[in-house]
Design a protein that fits this description.
Blueprint (H helix, E strand, L loop, with lengths): L10 H15 L6 H8 L12 H25 L4 H18 L1 H7 L8 H18 L6 H23 L9 H18 L1
Length: about 190
């Protein structure tokens, strides 16, 4: 039997608060004590919603992945081909910019093999495969291409977050040039 949640405290409210802590201070500061303080509750109340810090990290990973998926899916509506690839690329990078801590949480689930985490992540893979279908990718080739696509987006986001881009070049223009080169490579293949 799972614990009964405290009346008035919703899991999304908890995850939003945890995301705010992560975005401002980094994931290392997302502790049960800090979260309880932000929510003005006692730390044991959080155990009504998840099991310890590991449970919180899992819920944050799923919450962050779901938000990332929603932003990417929203940008994919009504566009196809190169425009869709560029749109979801920009949505991915923009999510990492707006939510650096929550983005980090999407990569820090205690068990990335967890079925719930896998299901959340599968939506992003499926969206990417659908968008890349315009390039006639099938089977394993489509999945290899999605891996490459994700690697580009994560690498770009990670380098940007860590201050790795010091030149005065516009980052959005760089992202667009990289994605267009990726698309050109898919077409050539």
């Amino acid at each position: 039997m799972s614990p009964r949640p405290k009346v008035g405290l919703e899991i999304n409210e908890i995850l939003e608060a945890a995301g705010e802590i992560a975005d401002v201070h980094g994931m290392r500061e997302v502790t049960l004590a800090n979260l309880a303080k932000k929510l003005n509750i006692r730390p044991p109340s959080l155990y009504n919603h998840f099991e310890g810090l590991g449970g919180l990290r899992k819920k944050m990973a799923i919450y962050g992945i779901d938000l990332l998926y929603k932003e990417m899916a929203y940008e994919a509506v009504g566009v196809s081909g190169e425009a869709a690839v560029l749109a979801i690329s920009k949505a991915y990078v923009e999510f990492a910019r707006k939510h650096p801590g929550l983005y980090e949480a999407t990569l820090l689930a205690p068990d990335m093999e967890d079925e719930d985490v896998q299901q959340a992540g599968a939506k992003i893979v499926e969206l990417s495969v659908r968008v890349l279908q315009a390039f006639d990718l099938q089977g394993e080739r489509a999945l290899h291409t999605v891996r490459g696509f994700r690697s580009i987006l994560h690498g770009f986001s990670s380098l940007e977050q860590s201050g790795g881009f010091k030149m005065t070049l516009d980052l959005d223009e760089s992202l667009e040039a990289i994605i267009k080169a990726f698309i050109k490579g898919m077409r050539a293949d």
